[in-house]
Amino acid sequence: MPTALITGVTGQDGSYLAELLLQQEYTVVGMVRRTSTINFDRIKHIQSQIEIVQGDLLDQISLINILQEYQPQEVYNLAAQSFVPTSFTQPVLTGEFTALGVTRMLDAIRIVDPSIRFYQASSSEMFGKVREVPQTERTPFYPRSPYGVAKVYGHWITVNYRESYGIFACSGILFNHESPRRGLEFVTHKITNGVARIKLGLSQELRLGNLDARRDWGYAPDYARAMWLMLQQDRPEDYVIATGETHNVREFLEEAFSYVDLDWQEFVIQDDHFYRPAEVDLLIGDASKAGQQLGWEPTITFVELVRLMVDADIEYWERRLKQAAAISA
Ligand code: NAP
Ligand code: GDD
Fold it and tell me: How far is CA 131 from CA 135, 139, 163, 275, in A?
């Protein structure tokens, strides 16, 4: 059975990809960085089926050692500093993880086994101040954050190692994708978590930034499937993965609050703290190449996505409330 290495296995996408590869009977090796407390919430249900190995995108030798020891046929590089606002406050660290980390992994592959197939987690954030609508694999990049700039570097170094060394290296230009496992600071999960807390009487308000930004939001498990499909093709290529629909943050709010019979305008406060030094105003992707060549298409609509995230957060907070009541009884 093939072996796959996933960097960023503790993240949203890493956890879904690990589930998918286990279903396909892969041996899954998950690289995690050393932390003082264990942070395996998203993979605890499959932890016993994964080989967890310590390594860090900042440390070249750790990457070389992992490739030599586990001899994977596929490497999925999902690890990154992925939160755009943090990239403005920690731009150098973001460059180290999100840009140079890609070169460290590609160079480890070149040295240890250039036949390894490589997936790079590129991002629609690279389109930034968009040059055309919708965005395709041929749309020029104009990143608007240190994160976006770092991802452009990661994208082009992947193309460069493919062209220079013949490595089977693919870059998936993925538009925003969400799920109940999304980090709580990202706007979708911040909203659905806020809705659940307000509905259950645990909060009275939700503070947000720019409500006019438009995103092409899809469902994370669909996007993990696209990553895998890219590495099963005859030739390495880059693909846009997106739903082809765009909605602004206000529409997400309306859908999430109205689903639980609340009016978002009574609870949402716009707060300057959550505005960014430079914004990405509009993202909408054209995934027709992925549709034609990979047979990929999204399975969940925008409304279904909002509702499944609200449901998951309400269930989570109800469980927490029941546990607290049981302890105090
Ligand atoms: P995420 O939830 O933030 O997960 C990031 C992962 O990277 C975590 O497992 C984190 O480990 C790990 N990591 C960070 N720095 C590391 C380092 N120096 N060495 C090793 N591991 C490190 O991100 P995600 O949403 O799953 O996204 C996965 C990838 O796709 C990222 O590269 C992201 O930039 C990219 N992407 C995401 C989207 C999206 O909408 N989700 C869209 C386009 C591209 P800890 O658990 O220790 O923090
Ligand atoms: N996080 C956040 N918090 N965003 C807010 C808020 C808020 O309180 N209020 C408004 N927004 C707006 C942001 O200004 C942005 O325009 C939009 O909501 C989406 O923000 P995020 O959910 O943080 O995602 P992102 O689009 O910046 O980045 C995500 O998608 C990229 C793909 O395009 C991340 O997952 C990146 O890692 C990924 O590459």
Answer: 8, 7, 26, 22
Q: Verify whether ligand 2 is closer than 6 Å to residue 294 (CB atom).
A: no
Q: Tell me, using a 6 A CB cutoff, whether residue 119 lines ligand 1.
A: no
Best of 176, 178, 217 for a ligand 2 pocket test (most atoms within 8 Å of beta carbon): 176
- The active-site residue out of 19, 26, 76, 125 is 125
Q: What is the pLDDT of residues 28-77, one digit of tens each?
A: 999 999 999 999 999 999 999 999 999 999 999 999 999 999 999 999 99
Ordered by where they begin, the domains of the chain are 3-178+216-241 (3.40.50.720), 187-215+247-281+300-328 (3.90.25.10)
Question: Do 114 and 169 contact (CB within 8 A), yes or no?
Answer: no
Rounded to two decimals, the pTM is 0.98
Is any atom of ligand 1 closer than 6 Å to the C-beta of 56? yes
CA of 80 to the centre of ligand 1 (A): 4
User: What is the DSSP code string of 187-203?
Assistant: HHHHHHHHHHHHHTTS-
147 part of the active site: yes
Q: What is the C-alpha separation between 242 and 37, in angstroms, rounded?
A: 35
Q: Ligand 2 pocket: which of 87, 147, 215 to mutate (most atoms <8 Å of CB)?
A: 215
Residues 99-121 have pLDDT tens digits of 999 999 999 999 999 999 999 99
Residue 329 banded pLDDT, cuts 50, 70, 90: confident
Report the distance separating Cα 110 and Cα 115, nearest Å.
Answer: 8
Local structure of residue 39 (DSSP, 8 states): -
Residue 239 annotated among the catalytic residues of the structure: no
Beta bridge partners of 21: none
Token couple for 45 = 């249900």
